[in-house]
Amino acid sequence: MDKKLRFPKAIAGWCCLLIAVFGSIPTQAQLRLDLESGLVLGTRYNDVRIPNQGGTLVNLPDNLSVNPTVFYRARLGYTIADRHTISLLYAPLTVQYQGSFGQNVNFNNQQFVANRPLTVDYTFNSYRLTYRYDFVARTHWRVGVGLTAKIRDASVRFASESNSTNFDNIGFVPLINFYVAYKPNEHWNVLAEGDALGSRFGRAEDIFVGGAYNVNRTLGFKAGYRVVEGGANVDEIYNFTWINYASVGVLLTL
Predict the structure, then answer these.
(1) Residue 68 near residue 95, CB atoms below 8 Å
(2) Distance between CA 136 and CA 83 in Å, rounded?
(3) Which of 15, 27, 127, 134 has its CA 20 to 30 A from that of 46?
(4) Rounded CA separation 72/156 (Å)
(5) Largest separation between any pair of C-alpha atoms in the chain
(6) With contact defined as beta carbons under 8 Å apart, do 249 and 222 qualify?
(7) Span 174-212, pLDDT tens digits
(8) CA–CA separation, 48 and 123 (whole Å)
(9) 3-class DSSP state for residue 3?
């Protein structure tokens, strides 16, 4: 089975398990679907050196142009007793760069000649399981923290007229989840939410800031700004990136 299809099927399996386990609990509960899309506005930086020892360090947006990219992501959440939320996130992303480097580049032990047309596909798919506890759950404020188990499915592919190679990396990353929302009235929310954590090997942040409008108890819409930043500095790779998003979404509550 193709590894690109394996994780979405696993997410579907987790969703069924989540509903089966918690659906029988005799308490107030809500099922919530958050569908998000928009445009990747650009990458502030995307520093890549593979291998970390012997590879050429390049900043992709400094040397190459970024093709317009539409992104999407989906989160399924289940809230119990108005405070405990378990959610699953599927967030694929591929950003494509095109152009040429002004120097010879050693990427993944392959040589790419300066001033020759080149395409770089930067893929960073994310699959996450999150538990969050809302320690503030009032009429106007909701604040919570939790833990996220993230599976990172990343790939960097360099392709020229005469050469191509890619480096794949799949790994597990633990993150801290947070959620802060202010509700001035029954329709509007101002919120900040995300996952973040750092260590001596690297860091990861995925943060959304924006607003939401609830048409009724079932349907809502959101819009705002999202940033994904972070990377790793380990034996195999050096890669740190900052990606900006303009985001809109649909919120469904059952």
Answers:
(1) no
(2) 8
(3) 127
(4) 20
(5) 66
(6) yes
(7) 999 999 999 999 999 999 999 999 999 999 999 999 999
(8) 13
(9) helix
